[in-house]
Amino acid sequence: MNSNMDSIKKIFAKKLLEVKAVKLQPQEPFTWASGWKSPIYTDNRKTLSFPSLRSFVKLELCHLILENFPEAEAVAGVATGAIAQGALVADQLGLPFSYVRPKPKDHGMGNQIEGEVKKGAKVVVVEDLISTGGSSLKAVQALRDYGVEVVGMVASFTYGFPVAEEAFREAGVRLLTLSDYEHVVSEAAKTGYIREEDMPVLAEWRKNPGEWKSTE
Fold it and tell me: How far apart are CA 130 and CA 156, in angstroms?
């Protein structure tokens, strides 16, 4: 990782903590929709409510795309978390925008991809948050099935689970994010947001979140 990218990851981690978009509760774990118990909960959508932070996310995602996927001809957001951010990014870059539903609509045209995207177009996918990577990669597959070339994905945040990293590798999708779990935990420890003794618990959870149980 270059020093500039590392710096952005630290800055964004700090900003997420400042607006309480990240909550760390090792002693009182959250329960995710998957049933996993987790000492952390991240809600990137909160960034949309703060104009300066919203612009920061938009511009930094644009920088990632321009530096790494300059060939992109269109932007696709993953519903619903990345629709707003994807549209902001597409607008800034002057590129067409569409978004991908989790599954085809059960009425009307039965679309899974909303908007217009040309067959064969080079598309960069904008995502909100990467956990297991399952829903993000389903969106990639829907776009590929439709007949476009996915050149890569950018996202605000990733937990960096080994299962997700493996899934992205297998799918042949390059993923770049503005921040990640390590940087958030590191910044949270620096500012006293979490206690030093909580660090091993947070590290243990990240290794195997599906099996993790709180000791409290």
Answer: 8
* DSSP string for 149-210: EEEEEEEEEE---HHHHHHHHHHT--EEEEEEHHHHHHHHHHTTSS-GGGHHHHHHHHH-TT
In a 13 Å sphere around the CA of 215, the CA atoms on its Cβ side amount to: 7
CA–CA gap between residue 138 and residue 112 (Å, rounded) = 11
Structure tokens at 135: 């829903």
pTM of the model: 0.90
Quote the tokens at residue 177. 């994010």
* pLDDT tens digits, one per residue of 88-147: 999 999 999 999 998 775 555 557 899 999 999 999 999 999 988 999 999 999 999 999
- Cβ contacts of 106 within 8 Å, gap of 6 or more: none
H/E element, 41? strand 40-42
Q: According to the model, what pLDDT value does residue 66 have? A: 98
Instruction: Give me 148's structure tokens.
Output: 């476009």
**Residue (of 119, 18, 57) closest to 65 by Cα position:** 57
DSSP codes of every residue in 90-107 = HHHHT--EEEE-SS--SS
Euclidean distance between CA atoms 139 and 167, whole angstroms: 13
